[in-house]
Structure formats: C-alpha cells, structure tokens
Design goal:
2 domains; 12 helices; 2 strands; disordered N terminus
Length: 325
C-alpha cells in the first residue's frame, strides 16, 4: 500500500511530507535542500498546492487594527467604571485580543491547521528550562554595564528587591507566553512559509519592534467616547511609527530581541525555548535593572543579543541539522 504523502512549500522550496511529520518541518528547513528532489510543484495536484499566505496575512493585520478602532470605545465605556485605566491601554488590550480572536477566522488562509503549526508541541519542560537558563545568562550580560556605574554614567547599579523580582518573574511568564505565541508562533511561522528563513526573521523582528512603539500620549483622547474615538486612538498609536521614532537605540534593541527569539523558535521548531528566554529577560531587565526602562542604553545590549542569536543558530541549528541528516 502506498504511503500517503503531500508536498509542502516554504518560500520557493517544496518539501514532501506525511501529515504525521508536521512537527519535523522546521528541522527540514534547517537541513537545507529537500531530501526528495523529485517532488516539485508542477507534479502536485492543484488541491495539494500551498499558496502564499502573505496576502491573507496582510488582510489579517488590517483586520486587527480595524477591530481595535471599532471596539475599543465600547469596551472602554463598558469596563472603565469597574477598571479605571487610560483609553490607550484599553485600545492595546483590544488590539491584542483581536489578534487572537481573528486568528479563528483567518487560520485556514494563513495555513494554520493545528497547535503544532504555531509551535505548541511536546516536550515542554526541557526546552522551557533551557530557555530560562539561556535567557538568564544573556540577560545578565546585557546588564553588565550597570555593574560599572562610574563608567556607564548610571548613579546606581543593580538593585535586589525580592518582591519586585518575583512580580516581574510572574509577569515575564505571562508576557513571554502571549508575545511568543503571537509574534513567533503566528507571525513568524506565517512569514517563514511565505518568505523563507532570513527574510522571515528580519520581517518578524521589525514587526516585534514596531509593535512596542504602538503607544499614545494621555491627551490622545479626552472626554466621553464617541464613534470616532477609536480612530483617534488608532492615529495616535500609529504616530510614533509613522514619525520613525523607532529608529533609535531602543528600537535596535527590540529588533535584536525579536531576531534572537525568532532564531530560537526556528532552530527548535517549538515555542517553549523562546518563551523561557523571553520570560527570563523580562524578569531580569525589569526586576533587577535600576533604570525604569530596563536594559542599559547604547549598543551593548543589541550587540550581546545579536551574538546570542548567532550562537543559538550555530549550536542548536547544527544539532538539529545532524538529527535530520
């Protein structure tokens, strides 16, 4: 009996696979050329061809912002008496929730058919602990200038506050899981299928950087919500991006963070190592750093995180390549 097989296209390369082999797709990517060159797009039935997910991805992003602009005034009017918060915070929470809920509508055009397509696979604990350890080591290196207050210009170095560190550890786990699911599990996976490895790393890192500049001033929206309040908030949140405020040292740091985490996802094929790394970074850079902004400024932290991403590729990528070969 002939085994059931299909062809899967990443970028411009087509790979054969059985439906049960979906978890090994990232490993095949790292292995280089497809192991069965006789499988080509021209030999595939029309129903088995995988079209590019990029048009659906762009429509998905537009729908997220439209949903946030339409729904955030109503959500603010409904919940602000119970949970007082600035309108901008409500807008960002609605934006994040819209990204997750709209995935249910767009998941098939985006090529997401199971939890494994967004990196939610087993094992969980071991790669997560590896991520925590790697995040701890690289995060401490990023904070190294804070140990030298005289030369770095900081009045104080690191602070030891067990309560603050514990709070940020919990926040780090929550932030790490939600942001990694969105930016690496969903965004990066889609871009990987549509663009290939290096362009997907660069594009997803840019999205990760720009998303952290979606902010508005407290004066962006005053008074009672109206039908146009959501559009005012949308314009206010996009203003820092459209004015290229992200072209600074903080933007470079965020881009390096996104690239390192995308590399961790690519070389492991799962979400758990990036979640561990991200959680450790949040706990360290905000729970221990003396500066309110976390990591010291300048080029030190982006350089460390860039080298960290390269080491991840060399160590874990070569190990993955060997297992596939």
């Amino acid at each position: 009996m002939q085994k059931e097989s299909r062809c899967l296209s990443f970028g411009r390369t087509t790979y054969p696979f059985r439906p049960a082999d979906r978890l090994q797709i990232s490993a095949i990517l790292l292995a280089g050329d497809p192991p069965f060159p006789e499988c080509s797009r021209s030999s595939m039935p029309a129903t088995e061809r995988f079209s590019s997910p990029l048009p659906a991805f762009l429509a998905y992003l537009v729908a997220i912002f439209l949903a946030a602009a339409l729904l955030s005034p109503a959500v603010y009017a409904l919940l602000s008496p119970v949970y007082p918060a600035p309108p901008g915070r409500y807008f960002r929470r609605v934006l994040e929730l819209s990204a997750l809920l709209l995935l249910l509508l767009f998941r098939k055009p985006l090529g997401i058919h199971s939890w494994s397509d967004v990196g939610l696979i087993r094992p969980v604990l071991r790669p997560f602990l590896w991520g925590c350890l790697l995040g701890l080591a690289s995060g401490l290196l990023c904070l190294l200038p804070l140990l030298l207050p005289a030369s770095s210009g900081h009045p104080v170095g690191l602070r030891w506050d067990p309560a603050s560190l514990g709070i940020w550890t919990g926040r780090g786990l929550l932030i790490g899981l939600t942001e990694e699911l969105l930016f690496r599990g969903i965004f990066f996976s889609i871009l990987l299928r549509g663009l290939g490895r290096l362009p997907a790393i660069l594009a997803s890192s840019l999205l990760f950087c720009l998303a952290h500049y979606l902010r508005s001033s407290p004066e962006a929206w005053k008074g009672s919500p109206t039908a146009f309040s959501g559009w005012e908030l949308l314009h206010a949140h996009l203003a820092p991006i459209l004015s290229f405020s992200w072209l600074d040292a903080q933007g470079l740091l965020l881009f390096a963070v996104g690239a390192a985490l995308a590399t961790a996802y690519l070389v492991t094929g799962a979400l758990w190592m990036p979640v561990g790394i991200h959680a450790a970074w949040v706990a360290l850079l905000y729970g221990l750093a003396a500066r309110p902004g976390g990591s010291p400024g300048g080029l030190w932290s982006p350089l460390i995180l860039t080298l960290f991403g390269v080491l991840l590729w060399i160590v874990f990528g070569q190990r993955r390549r060997g297992r596939v070969a």
